[in-house]
Write a structure and sequence with these properties.
Layout lengths: L3 H11 L12 H13 L5 H17 L8 E2 L2 E2 L1 E4 L4 E5 L8 E3 L2 E3 L2 H8 L10 E7 L4 E6 L3 E6 L8 E6 L3 E7 L5 E5 L6 E6 L10 E3 L6
Antiparallel strand pairs: 1-2, 3-4, 4-11, 5-6, 7-12, 7-14, 8-11, 8-13, 9-10, 9-12
InterPro entries: RmlC-like_jellyroll
Protein name: Cupin type-1 domain-containing protein
GO cellular component, one term: trans-Golgi network
């Protein structure tokens, strides 16, 4: 008669082990494989391009530019909208005269200073106080404390804006046609300036009004 305990033991030892044939992946792994498979297809290119454009727009939208450095506690570049003028410290652009196959490049401020040229507006002197009806002018002013006056109809009480350019600053001003302007030296040293017109000016023409402001 067979021992029942031994039969049960033999049955347990000879029973084959059942192993799972498939391994179920976590939901996040399955999602990652689906995304990877999609990105390998050509149809994903418009999606990637749109994503790149969106990220670029967000980067530009929330970018905060670094403010310009200050010199001596004052801003390096100052904009005066009433006189349509920008001024900055002359030491910011100490570039020499240079020439290559493309032409000439110079900093007129440094060039005039290094050459020891005399100023164009003597202390207490005045240039301008006129209005050109046929040309636009751009000015570069430096070398002395100088007042620049520009006609501005938005300033109701005076009808003009004014800005002071310090002796160690450079002023860049745009004066559109039919806009009066004037430069006044307020220093004990001469003022340098360069004036550029987009059309020739005939001083004897009726296209220019002279002595616009009687207080100058």
């Amino acid at each position: 008669m067979a021992n029942p305990r031994r039969a049960i033991a033999l049955h347990i030892q000879t029973q084959p082990l059942s192993l799972p044939t498939t391994t179920s992946l976590p939901p996040h792994s399955s999602l990652g494989l689906s995304v990877l498979h999609f990105l390998k297809r050509p149809a994903s290119f418009p999606f990637l391009l749109s994503l790149f454009v969106l990220l670029t727009w967000l980067s530009l939208r929330f970018h905060r530019p670094t403010p310009p450095p200050s010199l001596g506690g004052r801003p390096a570049v100052v904009h005066d909208p009433q006189a349509n003028l920008v001024r900055f410290a002359a030491e910011l652009h100490p570039t020499p005269i240079a020439r290559d196959g493309r032409g000439w490049l110079l900093d007129p401020v440094a060039a005039a200073r290094d050459a020891g040229l005399p100023g164009q507006i003597q202390p207490g002197g005045l240039r301008g106080n006129h209005r050109h009806h046929t040309c636009n002018e751009t000015f570069v002013i430096w070398g002395a404390k100088t007042k620049f006056r520009l006609e501005n109809a938005d300033i109701k009480d005076k009808g003009y804006g004014e800005a002071i350019i310090a002796a160690d600053e450079v002023g860049i001003i745009a004066s559109t046609r039919s806009t009066a302007h004037a430069l006044i030296n307020m220093d004990v040293q001469p003022t340098f300036f360069i004036g550029c017109q987009d059309t020739p000016i005939n001083p004897n023409s009726t296209n220019t009004d002279y002595k616009v402001w009687k207080d100058l």
